[in-house]
């Protein structure tokens, strides 16, 4: 089940990934409360630990602040590339979160 798709901005690749509205509701509260880690597997099977922070405001926003810049650097992501985060439900192991990267044609 797709949780979000986002075309990355300059801020996303340089600092933190700000997730689209509605993403907060799609993830379990225990996974995204302040300082909690969200484990996400990439397309080659590497498990990434992203630390999530909920930014307060009129509309609370979910930001991935820790682990994200390392992911960006290793994957050599640029502004204009996109990411897809989805939940893969496995009857044996339970729900797992996965991330896929798509390159912009300009990069």
Keywords:
alpha+beta
Characterization of this structure:
- The chain is an alpha+beta fold and 107 residues long.
- The protein has four helices and seven strands; from the N terminus they run E-H-E-H-H-E-E-E-H-E-E.
- Strands 1-6-7-3-4-5-2 form a seven-stranded mixed β-sheet.
- The model has no long low-confidence stretch (mean pLDDT 83).
- It comes from Hibiscus sabdariffa.
- InterPro entries: B3_DNA-bd (IPR003340), DNA-bd_pseudobarrel_sf (IPR015300).
- It is found in: Nucleus.
- Residues 4-99 form the TF-B3 domain.
The overall pLDDT average reads: 83
Helix/strand order, N-terminal first: EHEHHEEEHEE
Distance from first to last alpha carbon:
28 Å
Q: What class do helices, strands and sheet pairing give?
A: alpha+beta
Poorly predicted runs are none
Summarize the structure in short.
This protein is an alpha+beta fold and 107 residues long.
Secondary structure blueprint with pairings:
Elements: E1 2-7, H1 10-14, E2 17-18, H2 23-26, H3 29-32, E3 36-41, E4 47-55, E5 61-66, H4 68-75, E6 82-90, E7 94-102
Parallel strand pairs: 3-7
Antiparallel strand pairs: 1-6, 2-5, 3-4, 4-5, 6-7
């Amino acid at each position: 089940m797709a949780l979000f798709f986002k075309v990355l901005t300059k801020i996303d690749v340089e600092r933190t990934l700000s997730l689209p509205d509605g993403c907060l509701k799609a993830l379990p509260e225990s996974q995204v409360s302040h300082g909690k880690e969200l484990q996400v597997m990439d397309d080659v099977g590497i498990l990434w630990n992203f630390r999530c922070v909920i930014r307060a405001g009129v509309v609370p926003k979910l930001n991935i602040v820790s682990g994200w810049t390392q992911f960006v650097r290793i994957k050599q992501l640029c502004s204009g590339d996109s990411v897809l985060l989805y939940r893969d439900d496995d009857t044996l192991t339970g729900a797992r979160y996965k991330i896929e990267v798509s390159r912009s044609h300009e990069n």
